[in-house]
Amino acid sequence: PINIQWRDSVYDPHLKPLKIHYDPTTCLYIWNNGYSFQVEFDDSADKSVIMGGPLENHYRLKQFHFHWGAINEWGSEHMVDSKVYPAELHLVHWNPVTSTSFEEAIMENNGLVVIGVFLKLGAHHAGLQKLVDALPAVKHKDTIVEFDVFDPSCLMPSCPDYWTYDGSLTTPPLTESVTWIIKKTPIEVDQNQLEEFRMLLFTSAGEEEKRMVDNFRPLQPLMNRTVRSSFR
Ligand SMILES: CCCCCNS(=O)(=O)c1cc(S(N)(=O)=O)ccc1C(=O)O
Ligand SMILES: [Zn+2]
């Protein structure tokens, strides 16, 4: 993750609007992987896909997860002009044109696209609440609960503006296979919803409880990468 300096980003007029078509019935389950909670999707066909933006072709939604802090002062993996948000949503997609599976796409150049959406403290988010209500069922590491119909588009801000740069996964194997698309405008969630995230545990049932908080990777230097913006 990087600190996006608005002034260093370059407006690219060739960047198209991002097109998102998620099929809510491709949602499978939520599970606690001991690092975050993830909502997994059926990626066996081109049913929940994104295209346009900086992308050459379409990408299939595989999973989404969040990163958050112990308190509202930090939690996001990216920053904007050194501003940190209390949480960040990542929607992970893979390229079915150049790879035959997600696992293969992880190792490919341009194999993955991750859309990042900042969460800020504010109004109650009705769409997120369905997800929050399921969290007690996945409190411990390696627990899973069926989650049959959910449309992640409800977690997208209406503003089309984004930054994009070529980067890596923020989790091992940290491969440089990710086209990052970071939405400029955060979505609002309320204090209770953030607190529910912080009630999850890193630990399995029976172990000494460790609250799942601060599950973000520290900032990495941008090096010679350029961040392009879809807006002036
Ligand atoms: C088989 C190895 C998978 C490694 C990457 N998996 S992932 O779904 O892309 C992922 C991405 C990310 S991130 N923050 O989007 O780079 C975080 C966690 C995971 C995960 O698997 O838990
Ligand atoms: Zn992530």
Write structural notes for this entry.
This protein is mainly beta. It has helices at residues 102-105, 126-134, 191-197, and strands at residues 3-4, 10-11, 18-21, 27-32, 37-41, 49-52, 59-68, 79-80, 87-94, 112-121, 144-146, 162-167, 178-183, 187-189, 228-229. The strands form two sheets. Strands 2, 3, 4, 5, 6, 7, 9, 10, 11, 12, 13, 14 and 15 form a 13-stranded mixed beta sheet that branches. A two-stranded parallel ribbon has the order 1-8. A hairpin with a 6-residue loop joins strand 6 (49-52) and strand 7. The model has no long low-confidence stretch (mean pLDDT 95). Zinc ion (ZN) is lined by residues 65, 67, 90, 170.
Task: Fill in the keyword field for this structure.
single chain; 232 residues; mainly beta; 13-stranded mixed beta sheet; two-stranded parallel sheet; 3 helices; 9% helix; 31% strand; globular; binds 2-(pentylsulfamoyl)-4-sulfamoylbenzoic acid; binds zinc ion
**Which percent band covers the strand fraction?**
25-35%
- Average pLDDT, rounded to a whole number, is 95
Number of helices: 3
> What structural class results from the helix and strand content?
mainly beta
- What summary fits the major beta sheet? 13 strands, mixed
| C-alpha termini separation | 23 Å
Rg over alpha carbons: 17 Å
Query: Which percent range fits the helix content?
Result: under 10%
Low-confidence stretches: none
